[in-house]
């Protein structure tokens, strides 16, 4: 028996970094499509709201709403009667909103709505 050393197999051509990145990007895009297709109606609504509350539009809307409310009830604005001079209603509104916003952020982080 004549044992000759085995010649190592030729390595398969190694994909370039561009090819690897392209493959990974395509895989992630497909996964996102699948996840989006699997969303329930409630999850879609929760994610849409969470996307909005994480935007500057949300901040600007609150600046206008709360700014007007506070100005109207502290210094007064023409044509708007003082309806909350001690700002109790705006504080209550903000507290209730904070409860819902926190819940929506948690839903968004969890990725589901617990079967609702």
User: Share of helix among residues?
Assistant: 55-70%
What's the tally of helices?
A: 4
Mean pLDDT: 87
Low-confidence stretches: none
**Helix-strand topology string:** HHHH
CA-based gyration radius: 28 Å
Q: How many strands appear in the DSSP assignment? A: 0
User: What proportion strand?
Assistant: under 5%
Largest pleated sheet: none
So what's the overall shape? rod-shaped
Distance between the termini: 73 Å
The computed structural class is: mainly alpha
What would your notes on this structure say?
It is a single chain. The chain is mainly α. Helices cover 66% and strands 0% of the residues. The protein contains 4 helices and no strands. The relative contact order is 0.09.
Summary, kept brief:
By secondary structure, this protein is mostly helical.
Provide tags for this entry:
single chain; mainly alpha; rod-shaped; 66% helix; 116 residues
SSE inventory with pairings:
Layout (H helix, E strand, L loop, with lengths): L16 H21 L3 H13 L2 H19 L13 H23 L6
């Amino acid at each position: 028996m004549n044992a000759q050393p085995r010649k190592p197999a030729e390595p398969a051509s190694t994909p370039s970094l561009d090819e690897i990145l392209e493959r990974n990007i395509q895989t992630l895009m497909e996964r996102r499509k699948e996840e989006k297709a699997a969303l329930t109606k409630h999850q879609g609504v929760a994610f849409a709201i969470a996307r909005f509350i994480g935007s500057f539009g949300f901040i600007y809307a609150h600046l206008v709403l709360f700014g007007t409310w506070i100005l109207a009830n502290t210094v007064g604005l023409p044509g708007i009667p003082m309806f909350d001079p001690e700002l109790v209603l705006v504080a209550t509104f903000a507290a209730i909103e904070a409860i819902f916003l926190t819940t929506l952020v948690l839903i968004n982080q969890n990725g589901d709505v617990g079967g609702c």
